[in-house]
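Hi R.,

Here are the chain sequences for the assembly we discussed:
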Amino acid sequence: ASPPDTLVEGFAFDDIISVDPGEAFELSTAEITGNCYSMLVRLNPDKTSEVVNELAESWSVSDDKLTYTFKLKPGLKFASGNPITAEDVAFSMERAVKLDKSPAFLLTQFGLTGDNVTEKAKAVDPTTFTLTVDKPYAPSFVLNVLTATVAAVVDKKLVMSKAKPVTPTDKYKYDTDFGNDFLKTGYAGSGPYKVVAWKANEAVVLEANPNYFGEKPKLKRVIYRYMKESASQRLALEKGDIDVARNLEPGDMESVSKKEGLKVTSAPKGTVYFISLNQKNADLAKPEVREAFKYLVDYDAIGETLIKGVGTIHQTFLPTGQLGAIEDKPYKLDVAKAKELLAKAGFKDGLSVTFDVRNIQPVTGIAESFQQTAAQAGVKVEIIPGDGKQTLTKFRARKHDLYIGQWGSDYFDPNSNAETFTSNTDNSDDSKNKTLAWRNAWDVPELTKETQSALLEPDSAKRAAIYEDLQKKVLADSPFVIIYQQVEVAGYSDKVKNFKLGPSFDTNFVYTVSKD
Amino acid sequence: MTAVLDISHLHVFFDVYHALDDVTLSVGRSESFGLVGESGSGKSTLLRAVAGLAPVSSGDITCDGEAITGAHRSRAFFRKVQMVFQDPYGSLHPRQTVDRQLLEPLAVHGIGDAEPRIRRALDEVGLGPSFRFRYPHQMSGGQRQRVAIARALILEPKILLLDEPTSALDASVQAEVLNLLEQVRRDHGLTFVMVSHDLGVVTHLCERLAVMQHGRVVETLTAADLASSRVRDDYTRHLMTASRGFSR
Amino acid sequence: MTVTASTAGRRRARSTKILFDVGRFLVVLITTYLGLLAVTFFIGRVIPIDPVLAILGDRAPASAIARVRAEMGLDLPIWQQFLIYIRQILSGDFGTSVLTTNPVLTDIARVFPATLELATFGTLIGTIVGIPLGVLAAVKRDTLIDQAVRLIGLIGYSIPIFWLALLCLLLFYGKLDWVAFPGRIDIAYEYTFTPITQLFLLDAILQREWDVAWDVFRHIVLPGCLLGYVSLAYISRMTRSFMLTELGQEYVVAARAKGLSERRIIWAHVLRNAAVPLVTVIALSYAGLLEGSVLTETVFSWPGVGLYITNSLQSADMNAVLGGTLVIGSAFIALNLLSDLLYRTLDPRTRAR
Amino acid sequence: MTTGFETAPVSRRDWLLSDRPTSRMQARLGRAYMIWLRFSANRLALAGLGLILALILVAIFADVLAPFDPVQGDLRNARLLPPGTGSYLLGTDDQGRDILSRLIHGSRLTLAVVGLVAVIAAPLGLLVGTVAGYAGGWVDAVLMRITDIFLAFPKLVLALAFVAALGPGIENAILAIAITSWPPYARMARAETLGVRHSDYIAAVRLMGASPFRIVLRHVMPMCLSSLIVRVTLDMAGIILTAAGLGFLGLGAQPPSPEWGAMIASGRRFILDQWWVATMPGIAILLVSLGFNLLGDGLRDALDPREAGR
Amino acid sequence: MSALLTVDNLKVQYPTRSGLIEAVRGVSFTLGRERLGIVGESGSGKSQTGRAIMGLTTPQAIVTADRLDFQGMDLLKASPRERRALRGKRIAMVLQDPKYSLNPVMTIGRQIVETLRTHESVSKAEARRRALAMLEAVQIRDPERVFGLYPHEVSGGMGQRAMIAMMLICDPEMLIADEPTSALDVTVQLEVLGILDRLVATRGMGLIFVSHDLRLVSSFCDRVLVMYAGKVVEELRASELSQARHPYTRGLLDCVPKIGESRHPLPVLDRKPEWAA
Ligand SMILES: Nc1ncnc2c1ncn2[C@@H]1O[C@H](COP(=O)(O)OP(=O)(O)OP(=O)(O)O)[C@@H](O)[C@H]1O
Ligand SMILES: Nc1ncnc2c1ncn2[C@@H]1O[C@H](COP(=O)(O)OP(=O)(O)OP(=O)(O)O)[C@@H](O)[C@H]1O
Ligand SMILES: [Mg+2]
Ligand SMILES: [Mg+2]
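And here is the predicted structure of the full complex:
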């Protein structure tokens, strides 16, 4: 049984590779960082089109839309007891950019580089921080990006005291690791909870931060216990060994919702699942084939069974809730139509393709279902199951035919998804750009331009219109068969009060939770 | 007497154990030569050394004019020298019929007329055709020993090495096998080198014999000498008394 | 070679024989380790998983990827990589695990005891129950008891352990609530209890923390019994067969001729002889449990070395895989050595004089 | 030949049991018949044989026997139906496929895995073991080192690594299992060869001038064969379980192939509410590997004269 | 002379798949305090006779007799416990091959002591003392050393002596020796026989000596039973061996080659079916 002062969550967090906010870019880490670090601004969980202040007391944009000035609230403290100053904010930015880890691009897309970051992101005085961007972006875009966990503020004094010297090379020009080694498993933040331990595939332990500047958390400890399977999470939940089950599958969700003493909650997330067709494969590059495949998914049956409760059928690339998102659902299972299209493309007798699928539900189930429906149209699909990293390696090398994947918004702005689905600046094999469009060798210079133009559109309504247009185009002609948008669910014991899932992964807050 | 088998200064070691210590022997053509001695005195080792089955560390062996060195034996050697082992239960392959066992040497040497040869060989050792397709476990010890003899004879060797061919057999069966050996020797003009711990058996079959103890040859003498107790060595005398049976 | 020289040589050979044996053993050990290293290295290179991916995640910028690739020496020729790898290992550096970001040795020091504890528990059960069952079956050969023991053993041999584990978990945890939830220890104790040896049961008992010990026991008992059943199946079956071989020996007749009771003959004479080959069997089954409990560990979320290697393998975390492999390989070699030693002490015929 | 023994005055049984066979064929058949007599006296062994024969028959006639398509399901209407619903005797799985039909078709995979692994691993182990044992010296040392390395290597890791390297699929799983399962055979064959190497009958063959190659192939190997057969039969269960284990870890078979281990793996998600999805394939595996074990046990008693003599 | 053991119409049968094997087919004899030899070719049922008397045939054997009487005790009616109490204490048996009949993982001393302590309650020290004395009695030169040795560490002759010591330590009234010397070297063979002979003479035991060596038996025993195919075909005094009448016995005697005798070919046995009748 779980202790009364502790919230125990069963959670499949096998994606965590580090809890350093400057390095981590995984969904599970986002939740940890969200609960343990503070940022200048945050997404408003109740109204996702807005950002609200956290460390910042106020902010303003210069007229040329290039310089953003943030004023910090007074008297803030890190968990270590050190005061939070603009210096720390600037350091956090500098650190992320210089470390150049996975999430660094969020900042570097504003023109920050290792060489200029100290100039462009700097503390003017202890409570004033300014950020200078390279183009007059829509302010909503910039602020939305700043809500991402990479912008979490770390304790400069503490971090640098733990930093390890490194020998500079051509690739890495600095003589310190900026405390990266320490922060991989350590903690230097100011959130309601602090990270006490992360043991890969075992547990993440959070403890209340006594120096937290906001309302103190109700529970002393939060333990995320690694549990891979839905069935065992449910079992443990029913037995009271955990308070929250985070990875319930449809069947288990249903049972939990009917069970006395247990409740379920859910929240749509900004993640869409899609099957993508590699355009390097000449067969799949035919427009008719691309279209035919969209008719070969049994959206309705999948929605009623495999993803019931954990996803809603969604066919456009922007998740519901983001600026400009549309809800068009023109496709449904239509084998005859698909056959006709295939015949038009010259595949009267069908064709064979391979399909790289992660060993994880519900993707495997959807893949199998697709395999069956595709077979009806003469498309022979060979499923190649693999572990996540294995299929991903292949996908990134553009060696797949079909791939089933998901894309979660990096920050709550339409650009995140638009960029990946519609922009491909360089379709060559050694391109630096790794968007989904590139990964499927979908060479679309016009769409790329259109996506970029949306970034600089300061008027929200006009910006939304551009995204709507992009979505329609992708829906009609892209090699992406978008199937559904994820709904995150959790089952929990009714002893747990105020448990809520947020609209994004870094807003799944636990500090409001209490227990009877 | 022309020597068909000449052994001089032969040494055999098993790791550190000196199993044969400077053994020198000479066996004449068509002679029957016996080896006696207590258990572990190196009788079997001597035969095996000649056959190339024991690690010779030094010494010379000449066989029918062919000088042999080390453990390597030429193909021709095996057509000249064959061996019959002590234990009829262990010297036949348990998973092969008599037919297979007799066929094998012919196959190895690429000898063609297998069918008549096998029939003749079985006939010669007094086994009818009904034995041809039996497995070893379907035969008695004496019958197995006959098969072993047939197998040795089928290559028509000149020298037959016999390692206690009858000691595992009943007295009555022993007599049959001894008679058989005598007969094939006469028919083929074979040279015998026979090991036995039974002085009666050795004197029955051999003209000359060597007495071994602790890996050495202590005395070489003729059967007639033995019969009339003309022995020089104490150990030989001791063996003779022992073989007369128990006396109170 | 002259006679005198050879005799002297033999004598010298005898005194150097022990030295030679030790030397040969070392050569065996070193080559086996080198082999393990080479195979692991090879596996690491052929696995179609980009190790950089495991370090940086999916969305890292190209510059970071190139940097890490160079850091890991992945751009060097294969043989150079292997040499670097060997040099690293020889200097005692197993590197850090990408997956857990800990030094591999630290990880191993945590996960291996977990497996060790489980496997030891299983082997104890297998031995304590399996041997008497095997003896019983052999003594009552062809009776109902014999058939029953054989069938129990055969089913243990035939049942998919992960399946049985699932069903048992459902029954004993889900329905009956007799055992604790998967894992090694309850959350409530996990952060209050400080283990010394990492063998939790032992630690709890040593520290006289009885409630912890009870909790740990409730966790280990089900997976331990399941592994115990598998090992019991093997041990009882081999015991039966060794006992039957020994029961047919002449010394048993001699012992009966002495007027000894059947019980004494079975337990003091026959089993004592059957114990000689049994030692190897038990060691083998123990080694098997040490390396082969991945499936059980998966079902019971047991943070052991099998699970560790499997997880690492799926992330191409070759440092961790190698560490785990070497530990299991060492355990295997050590157990072999141990069973060899035991064999020698149990069997006077092989004892050095 | 048939006329031979129909006109003969002796019964067929006497002809087979004759201790004076008149032809190679009769001798061989007689030996086989003796083994069969010993084997068939063991009821459990017969049950095992029956199970295996049933498996083979099911595999051969899978197309006829299976009431439904094993890979095409009815996701919308027939998902997770309990046993006995409509014509789904053993229920359906999460893709709405008939479990019975999948089990029936899965028997082919099981049989293929078992057969191919045996065909690859056993001869390999036999060859390595007998050559090492007979040659001795450095050949033995080198071969046994390699064997030891493979033995000391965690088996499932090796198999996992191979499957990961070669890509998933039943063929690769077979290769992986074969690669991990030969060392024990090599060890066993070597031990047996060492026992046989110094026997007089091998000495006799050497005295015929037979080449080492011939001795190993024709005289040593047959001696190792019966214990090898027994061991392989007993290991079949282990092979099935390993394959199932690989399937369980998601590395054995590719979906939608009805591999039993993979079926358990995908069914375990429903074990709380839809117990049959994981239970049915579990029972199938249990039955088949029990069958192989019973068969192997019986064969051991029948082939091993030491045991059978009593 | 009072009879120690009376055997009347002893039969030992083995049910097998191909019918009943009759290993012993009605053997009758009596044994006093004397040396009785049993000879016969391999498979004639000598060992089975000995084992049936000891009650050591394998469980599936069917042993029947009109009478099997040891000093007034009906062995066939005795409970297993009673028979066990007899074995080693009053009736002992020496098996053929010392290599296999000594427990390889127990020291020789312990095995001897074990017999003693099974039947008599003596202290450890006393048992050891008596075992050493017994080892000395079987002419082992260094009993202290041999006491602590394992079977594989002693030669065949020593092993056989140890076996005899183990069986005689409780002073049995009767000893069955089943080919006790056939695995040994000729010279050692005589030494062991010498020891047996002395022990029988000094302790007044009854001895059944099983062997296939007619010459040896005749020179060692007082009386000889000749067995063929599970039956006794002839019984005679050892001294009257040369007057044996049964052709089987004569044949066995004749077919052995002797030093200084020239018979080529050797006479062989011509087995007659009526012998087995
Ligand atoms: N392969 C071997 N390895 C080690 N020692 C051996 C080997 N073969 C024989 N010996 C030893 O060499 C010595 C002589 O053995 P050998 O077999 O020649 O004796 P033997 O005279 O034939 O005795 P027996 O009459 O018992 O057959 C013995 O002490 C034996 O232990
Ligand atoms: N367990 C058994 N089952 C069937 N038959 C048996 C069994 N034991 C012995 N026999 C048979 O009983 C017969 C007599 O055997 P026994 O051992 O008494 O012969 P023996 O005279 O001692 O011969 P040897 O001189 O070879 O020891 C043999 O034909 C043998 O096959
Ligand atoms: Mg010899
Ligand atoms: Mg006998």
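Chain C touches chain E at residues 249-251, 253-261, 264, 269, 272-273, 276, 346-349, 353 (CB under 8 Å). Residues 233 and 352 of chain C are 34 Å apart (CA to CA).

Let me know if anything looks off.

Best,
T.
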